[in-house]
Amino acid sequence: MSISIVSLNVNGMVDNKKRNAVFYWCKKKNIDVICLQETHSSSDVETKWKNEWKGESFWNHGSSNSKGVAILFSEKFKFEITETGRDSIGRTISVHVKTPGNNGIFIYNIYAPNLAGDRKSFFEKDILIDNNNRNIVLGDFNCALIKNLDRKPVPLRDDIGSHELKTFVEHNELIDVWRKRYPKEKQYTFCRGNSRSRIDYIFISSELQYKSQQVKLVYFPFSDHDGVFMKLKTNEPERGPGTWKMNSSVIQSDLFRNTFESFWGNWKLKKNHFENNLEWWEETKIKIKSITIEVAKQLNITEKQIREWEKRLDNITGTHPINNENELNNLKVKIKDYYAQKAEAVRIRSKVNWYEKGEKSTGYFFKLEKKRGAEKLWTRIKGSDGRYKDDIESILEEQVSFYKQLFTSEGWDRDAAENLLQNIDHKLSEENKKICEMEISLDEIRKYKVKVVNAVTNLDSGANIIKSNIPEITSLHNFKFTEDALVVWKAYNIGEGKTILWTQLKSNSNKELSVVLDWRDVALTRFQEDENESTDMNTQIKKRAIFMCPVEGCVREFSTNSNLDNHLLLGNCDYKLEKQCLTDLAITIYSKKINDGFPSSTSGQHGQRSECGNNISTEGDYINPMGWALKGKRKKTVFSTAQKQYMKEQFDIGKRTGKKVDPFYAAEEMRKLSQI
Q: Which residues form the Endonuclease/exonuclease/phosphatase domain (predicted)?
């Protein structure tokens, strides 16, 4: 079952012909709920207009030439409707629609002021809704939320009142349902001359977003506004069996412990009744689940019991609290514990990772749990035939079919596999197989090592070629490899870059193997040889120390126990660096690269500043001046007005959509704007 709803600014309908045409249009569209703004109605004509519509309707009047809002329901509409509120100036009206299986939906019809100053205070003070309910807030808001998407041409400034409207939407956890469905589309509901804007909205509670089946802008022929249409599912979908999880609070109770102990003693003796322990254990888990569920039922305090306790508490408080002080305190403790446990259960289920006790109210977690439950609910699924299925049985069948197909073998050709094995020429002999399956001897461990290495190539020659061919390129950081050439930029991926063919680069065979990891079985550490051992493994093996420091993190080892004792007395431990701040690591590597860049033959006096602004000692070694790695002052960059406007627009888009602009694209756009 579903409800269709539309928001229409009719721009006045005092004229009989226009009013009849509007009513006829609404009836022909078979829309359940029609929310009208700017009706220009008055109390004098309310009865007449209600009779003309025939269905149920609720009106809040303005004057004969301004304001006025109404909510009309089709004659076939079967749900119970109650008006819940209206203002005194003909700008808001709200109703409650009682749908089956839940607390219903609250509909708020809004017509915001045209005047900018009035509009700001209207959004801040005059629209009052309860965000604990499932709300639909719709109407003509007379301002655009996102000027880049909802206005044409795009104005320099945001509409007055748009900030307050955004705050209202965020505070009440509402969603612009049309923009959610079409995040990048540019369509408009109001047109006057060359100006177009989308100022008519339907906002819904986040809990309802997965129930919206259809959202669109519809042409309305009797006004300068188009309508906003939405179709919403009202019935609660049938839920599957779900997943059972053990309640840890149940197993902490005395009742569970006593029940489990009496069960476990007899159950262990029945192991021999099963073919194997695995079958016994599977049956054990089923038994434990049954016990837990049964104990939980006995421990569960119903809401009816709580109401009885609260009623008894009121009676005692109102009659003779002094005479029943013990019972009074006992009831207070029980009621308090009940609500505390319920709140804690909700907090856990809501999965708030950053929660700290006292930071958020219980109501927050109840609402968050409802929201997460709605997000996890599957309301429909696209089948393998391309059609959508929305009943629970079809959804489960489609899921089973998907995973069955996913984990089903696609088959293999046994004859082809056997033929492949038979035609392999190089095979291990039976003798070699036995040797390979033997345990590794200590001599073999001493003889062989496994090292992980990196091939290190000196790129100095390549760097010189690049520097000589491309002025001002001082590093190899801004480059990309292609099949035919090396492409370099001053700033990465900005512009076409400079292409250097591989044929222009001289081949460099000056390669070294840099040992990254020297591996050997950790259980045989005491037998590892010194790195400087000779090739004669049998005569010159130097065993490593076998007494290791027991202090956690210390890497010192000793050949005798007395040396270890002296070490422990002195406490002179060496610790292996396990973690290092990336900033410190970057500074260290950068310093090393600068040092390596200066040859030992460089002349200069100790403490004398070179052309690069660095110190060189008399021995030719590079010495960093104090504070060389600290950040220096950069020249202040002044952005143009166009650049500031572009950055603000991109920030607003990111804030709204949660997506960041591509940095390379943004850099290119900023460069172009700087030339304007």
A: 7-225
Q: From start to end of 99-182, where are the E strands?
A: 105-111, 135-140, 151-152, 174-176
Residue with tokens 């990891």, as numbered in its chain: 517
Cβ neighbours of 16 (radius 10 Å): 10
Residue type present at position 54: K
Q: Calculate Rg over the CA atoms of the chain.
A: 39
Instruction: Tell me which H or E stretch contains 234.
Output: none
Residue with tokens 């629209």: 127
DSSP 123: I
Residues with Cβ within 8 Å of 205's Cβ and at least 6 positions away in sequence, in order, are 131, 133, 134, 135, 136, 172, 173, 174, 175
Structure tokens at 42: 């008055």
Kind and range of the H or E element at 195? strand 195-197
As a whole number of angstroms, the distance between CA 308 and CA 180 comes to 46
pLDDT tens digits, residue range 233-274?
876 655 656 677 787 778 888 888 888 888 898 888 888 888
pLDDT digits (tens, 9 = 90+) for 373-412: 666 667 678 888 877 777 777 888 888 888 888 888 777 7
Nearby residues of 629 by Cβ (< 8 Å), 6 or more positions away:
587, 590, 591
Amino acid of residue 412: W
Amino acid, res. 655: K
What distance separates the 2 farthest-apart alpha carbons in the chain?
117
Single-letter code of the amino acid located at 557? E
Residue 127: both structure tokens together: 């629209």
Other CB atoms closer than 10 Å to residue 381's CB: what's the count? 16
Angle at 342 between CA 339 and CA 346, to 5 degrees: 140
In sequence order, the 6+-apart residues with CB closer than 8 A to the CB of 195 are 152, 153
Cβ pair 171, 123 in contact under 8 A = no
The residue extents of the domains of the chain are 2-233, 248-375, 582-623, 641-674
Structure tokens at 226: 């188009």
Q: Indicate the pTM of the whole model.
A: 0.46
